[in-house]
Structures are given as structure tokens and as C-alpha cells.
Amino acid sequence: MSTFDHRKYRPARSIGLAQRLWPDRRLDQAPIWASVDLRDGNQALLEPMDVAQKRRLWDLLLAIGLKEIEVGFPAASQPDYDFVRWLIDEQRIPADVTIQVLVQAREALIERTFEALRGARRAIVHVYNSTSTVQRERVFRCNRAGVRAIAEQGAQMLRDSARRYPDTEWVFQYSPESFSNTEWDYAVEVCDAVTEIWQPSPQRPCIINLPATVESSTPNVFADQVEYFCNQVARRDAIIVSLHTHNDRGTAVAAAELGLMAGADRVEGTLLGNGERTGNMDMVTLAMNLYSQGVDPRLDLSNPDEIVQVYTQCTGLPVHPRHPWVGELVYTAFSGSHQDAIRKCLQVQTPDEPWQVAYLPVDPRDIGRDYQAIIRVNSQSGKGGIAFVLERDYGLQLPRWLQVELAQVVQRESEQRQGEIDSKRIHALFREHFVDVQHRQTLLGYRLDQQAGVHRIEAQIEDGGEVQTIRGTGKGAIEAFVDAWTNCFGNRISVVDYSEHALGSGTAAEAVAYVQLNVDGQRTGAAAFDRDTVSAALHALLRALNRVDHERHAPALSAANV
What domains are defined for the chain? Predict the structure, then answer.
């Protein structure tokens, strides 16, 4: 620790607000949400998203209900330019959604930006320049007046360029980059100079975005800075004050919450906090924080499995099992005392009263989770031992979700027997509950074709004695089958987890496939064996779907039995 010297760092600037109001305020409505996943989040990826991934993430952002989406930096990137043109030319922007683009305060870049946006119904043009002390003194080698002039020139160029495209409703946005590291009075001075040029009105406001580009203070200091800004800035009634917090200190969500209490109207962030360094403000976490306090977040987060699936596939980033609200383990109690408290609360909780369940700040069912995921076998060796003997004696490499579900089945059996269960019985329970499941539908056969990376499937399903042919497309056989099922039966399905492996070696070796689905907000899973891996996967999918159908028609479990 000889190089660990705290004395080379200085605390963040602060001024004492004599009568700060934000500590006594509470949030009672959702902010204006603005997603920067497709720009800020994308530029932070080791491998930026390709066109297909951008389109898929765009569709997810729309489905969640976001109305302002920053879609790129078209003047700096040809892929971003092309994506903006695709959105406009293909009329992919709903009437109630506004796209936003970023641009530096430079003439050539601003001209290119407006070219990219030609034909848009409404667009936010977001111009920025850094105003912090260290940027002025060590990067730009410029004084206050010089940096303010850069902001003024950018504002003038936006105003003049917009006049050449009168058919578009333009919204101007300015960010004093590194606002959190800018002198408080100087940030107000620069933003006042910008709005003096734009002349916004309450009927046509502009956006002033206050970025904590590098989070370098506690959230309360940032809230003081926001409240000071809101009190001192000119034309406050004609300005939408926006926040863009980063997570360098791990408190981006807290800073955004306190900043909203301090008077801000809007927040920029990303799904699950993707972004440079430690990331941006996590919109899902902030929205669920509001929801847990009885505030409608005005975002549809009812299917977190789908959000996580699309996020991971588009960004290539994992989601930690302890991630707030949507992590795999956040509604799971391993402690016996926690399990007992949850069980007892569920026994007395009624639908018509406020949620009051120990250790569960929200009802997991609200976001597509069920109580089976809450209480798991307390002994870590329980599921680990089950997985060990099945691999040792039968070659089965169970995925974690299946280990957990099977452990519950085995525990119930052992409690009824009041004794030890050997590997043969454990294997029989595995097959009974996850392989040889009761079924209404049967896969009779299928045909799978592939052209240009697109798989097309035509499958014959026997349903109650009748044969139906279902058809679908996707990037693989599983996605194509899910698409076909959805087209025919209308279920909302996402694949939560899939894995497969061979049992033995050689061309005649049998394969086993494991699949976990989210079907209409309910998790289910199954397994299947076949010498053909695709056939094993499809049979596992169908068995998982049949499990949902069977469980829905079985007597409902009471809270006491969960």
C-alpha cells in the first residue's frame, strides 16, 4: 500500500445552500425518461452493436414505453448516420416518440447532423461542450470567456441550421459536459448564454442537460448543485432541466433521485446501467425504485426476463445475479429465518391491502417472477449434491436453474420419506418432473431450412387428436420454433436459458437439451433426450410449454405451500 496516498485527492467543491428544499421533498411522479442506450451505451461497448442488434434494442425500448431515445452521433459515425436514416426513411418512429442525436459544437458536424435528420417529424438535437475547470485549463487551455464562446457558437449554429428545415419540429438540447465538475456559477452563466440565443418559451422549451460526466461527489452535493442551478438559471419556466449521471462512485441512481427532488424534470440513462467506465444511470433500477414507493414509473417492466435477454444479446454484457430488482437471485432467500418470515407474511397478505412482506420490497409477480424462485433449499450442498450424483451416475450436467427446481422436488420427497434418497430415485424424480411430463401437445415432425442466416421451421403438432402445422422464422431453430408457436397460439415467450450436451461419445451418442422459458410472465423449464440435438431442443421446448398448460389447470398452490 506504499503507493496508496489519499492526500493527492481533493473533496468535491460545495457551497452551503442556506435553505435547501430537496431533503424534504418526495417524488410523486415519474420523470421524463430519455434512453441513451443506442448512443452512450453503444459507444462504451468493446464491440459496438451491428444493425440487427440496434434494431432489436430499438424495438425493446419502444415496447418498454420510452418516448425520447438518443439514437446516435450521426455526424461522427456512418453506421449511426445510416441507422438514423433507416428510422426516418422506413417510418419506424411512432408518432409519440422523439429521436435524439448528439453533436459537438462544430459547424461541419452540425450540418451533417441536420442532413441525417431531414424528414423527421420531431427531433432533439443535443449539442455539448465541456465546461469543467480541468478541461478548460488542461485540455482546451482556454479561459471562461473562451469556453462560453464555444457554447454560444454551437447554439447559434443549431438555431441557423434548423431554419433550413422548417418542416421538422426541432427541440434544442445543450449539455455543459462535466457539469458536476464545473464552478456552480459558471455553469449557470454558460447555460444562460445559450438560452439567450435560443429564446425558448414555456410553449416551446429547450432542454438543458446537466451531466455528472464523471461522478466525483456524494449525491447530496450533486443535489445541492442542481437546486442551485434551478434557482439561479434564467428562463426556468422555458427550460426542461435534465440529468445525466454516471456511476463512478456507484451512486448514479441515488444522484438522479436526489437531483429530481432538487428540481430536475428529466433523466437520461440506459437499461441496466450500461455505459462508459462503471456505466450510466440505470433506468430500470430508478423506475423500480419509484414503483416500490407507490409511484407509476410509466414504463412497462413487467417482463424483466425479456429485457435481460435482449440486453445481454445486444450488448454482450452479463447481468449480475444480484442486480437490483431484476437479478436472478434478488427474490431468493437461502436463510431459514428469512424463508420462515416470507412464508408467514404470504399467509396473511391479502390482495386488497398494501404490500407488507418481509424481505420482499415488491411483489415479484408484478414483474413476471413467481414465488417458486423465492424460497430455495437452505443447504448449499443440497442442490450441489444432487447435481454431483446425477453427473457422476448418469452424465447429466444440469444447469443451475434446474438444480434449484429439482432440489425442491427432492427435498419434498425426502421430508415425506423421512430418510435418504439415492441417485436412482433422484434420477427418476428428474425424469418425472422435467422429461416425462404430462402433455397435451406432441411434436410429430418438423422441417427446418436455412437461407442467408434465417432459419424457417414448419412443425406438425398433435393437439387433442388434431394435427396443426405451425410456421416461424428466427436466427436459429429455437427462435424459429418460438416464433411459430407464438404465431399459432399467441403466447408471449422468451427463452431465459438454454444448454445442451452429449451423453457419451461417438456419432451414436444421445444428446440432452435443457430449456427454461418465460411464458406469459410464468417461468417454466424442461429437458429432452434425442440423438439429434435440434430435435432434443424442440422436444424440450414443447415439454416446457406443456408444463405451463398442465400447471395452469392444476389446483392452485396456497401461499402456505409455496
Answer: 29-315 (3.20.20.70), 336-373 (no CATH), 380-434 (1.10.1220), 441-553 (3.30.160.270)
